[in-house]
Amino acid sequence: MDIFSKAPKSIATRLFLSATFWSVTLLIFAGIVLSALYRTSLEEAFDQRLGVYLRAIVADVATAGEDTRTEPGQLGEPQFELALSGWYWQITRLDVEKAEIKASRSLYAGKLPRLADLGVVPGIGGSRRGNATGPDGRNLRIVEREIDVGDEGIYLVQVAGTTDEMNYQFWQFLFAIFATLGLLAMALIATTALQVRYGLQPLRNLQEEVGAIRRGEGERINGTFAEDLSLLASELNLMIASNREILERARTQVGNLAHALKTPLSVIINETSNDTSPTADKAREQALIMRDQITFYLDRARAAARYGVVGASADVEPIVSALMRTFTKIFQDRPVHFSAELEGAVRFRGEQQDFEEMVGNLLDNAGKWSHSTVQLHVASCEPVQGADLNQSFLVIVDDDGPGLPQDLRDAALVRGGRLDESKPGSGLGLSIVVDLARLYGGGLDFSESPLGGLRAILRLPCV
Amino acid sequence: MRLLVVEDDRDLNRQIVTALEQAGYAVDRAYDGEEGHFLGETEPYDAVILDIGLPLKDGLSVLELWRNAGIKTPVLLLTARDRWSDKVQGFDAGADDYVAKPFHMEEVLAHVRALLRRAAGHASSDLSCGPVKLDTRAGRVIVDGNAIKLTSHEYRLLAYLMHHTGRVISRTELVEHLYDQDFDRDSNTIEVFVGRLRKKLGVDIIQTIRGLGYLIAPPNDQPSSAPGATS
Questions:
Q1: Which residues of B touch A274 (CB under 8 A)?
Q2: Looking at residue A416, what is its pLDDT?
Q3: For residue range A351-368, what is the model confidence (pLDDT) as tens digits?
Q4: How far is B2 from B197, CA to CA, in rounded Å?
Q5: Interface probe with A: pick from B51, B58, B85, most Cβ of A within 10 Å
Q6: Distance linking the first and last C-alpha atoms of chain A
Q7: Is the reported ipTM for this assembly greater than 0.90?
Q8: CATH number of the domain at A314-461, out of 3.65.10.10, 3.20.20.70, 3.30.565.10, 3.20.20.140?
Q9: pLDDT-based confidence at B76, cuts 50/70/90?
Q10: B169: helix, coil or strand?
Q11: CB atoms B104 and A356 under 8 Å
Q12: pTM, whole model, 2 decimals?
């Protein structure tokens, strides 16, 4: 099972958690191994000390028969004299029916347990080493050895020392080592965090650059990247450039196709216009149908070519100014006054041509129906509720024309729907606005205008 | 009125030229951008019908070159690229109007009439001078309520003068604006047409300004005090 399967998806967090996990695990393991080694070393040293005492007593026992002046067990260590000090020796004669026991004064009236009885196997040299509970209830480290002194008998010599001191030393070591390792772990975690931060900085920079392109604030990935990322950055730049090029080529082809089809259609329409024969009528009728179909499908083809284009954005103010100039010229024979008002600098998140197409169609529609006034209002860019990263703005087009009843507003948005044949146009304008606005995640709505006519409200994404 | 049609499709070019000639205009034609650019720069046209998609030099480049050279001739763009961005580009390049393809010839004629009218500073398509009324849409001339039948050359002469009411028009200017480039130009024919026109109109609105040219003005607004003015 992947222990990180439920972990956060950020690479930085994953790297940090993974490095921390392994550092801490290895430090704990190192602590355990060091403690075990230290414990073994302590026991070895303790056993050696007991072994010295044991050998001294064994020598005493072996020479006791020859030199009567020597009393076995005279080690000259005060802890063997103090009652229940935790340090004991005991000599037991084994070859007599009733065991003769001689012991240190410290053992007082007690007896040391025999390791042989506790199942401890003799080691190298025939001595046994092990732990047992002493007469005072304390844990003792015991070293014992049987010696055969011939006619003098067989003796079991035991020396014991309390493990309290050793345990104390061990716990002191344990505290010191884990405190040290704990501090080391904290230092490692801190350096890991710094390393992850430093190591992933180029990735974060790349992420910010890509984000800027997605938001339409940049056109390509800029800056210098680490060697292994610079290739990815240049590949991404190539991909973005290729995306734009494909789009541009698609647009040019669509434009060329429009030109290639519409010019012969003009010829057919005009060639048949002065001919009243049924064949000419049919040809003219079909040519007009073809004209509408070409317009409809070429607009959709353009919209499809644009879908998913990365990083496009356009400043609204110059587009609105250019449209105002254009409409003032187009409507110069009619007493229609076009005016525009912008609340502030707004940047449309999308293709400039699409913005021109949407607003151009709305202004054209308003101009056709208005009596004297068309007003364009561009509201400022505001965050969309519930989505922190998305912002949108409104383009409001008002006219003082006859307006549109509620029941006809939906019909005006239907593909190719035209409500009044008396005004020129293919009737595709508003539905193209709806389609384009939806492609950008926005929408078109109608309401009554304070000028008395129709108000078109276009919502679009902004940067 | 003399017009230039720059359209690479020969059929469409022919249709437009024919329709314009039938409407009483003198028309020159060009089939590519370079030829169109040259004609527009060297001949005094009253308006140009210019296609955007042209071989050798595209329509917008031709238009920009004209405007940069100070040529203010009204230009009607013909475009198959009917997006607003194309239209904005066209108007910003100096176009005065546009017609999207495919179109009915009446649309082109209406736009040309409006262009000429606006260029001469007239608000209406009906031009009048005293009792003479010129309906540019129908191509009719009415004097005191009666329709007058004119030949195409007579109509062109009257239309040009009425578009420029109150201004003295030289014979050279009239020759340049009434005949296409293939016509055998002879300024003496102008005097013949003026004579016939005066006779057919029956009202004295065309004045000869000796040494300068012709002036059209209402009968009671004649510059009788002007030196050399004769009827």
A1: none
A2: 45
A3: 888 889 899 999 998 988
A4: 19
A5: B85
A6: 43
A7: no
A8: 3.30.565.10
A9: very high
A10: strand
A11: no
A12: 0.61
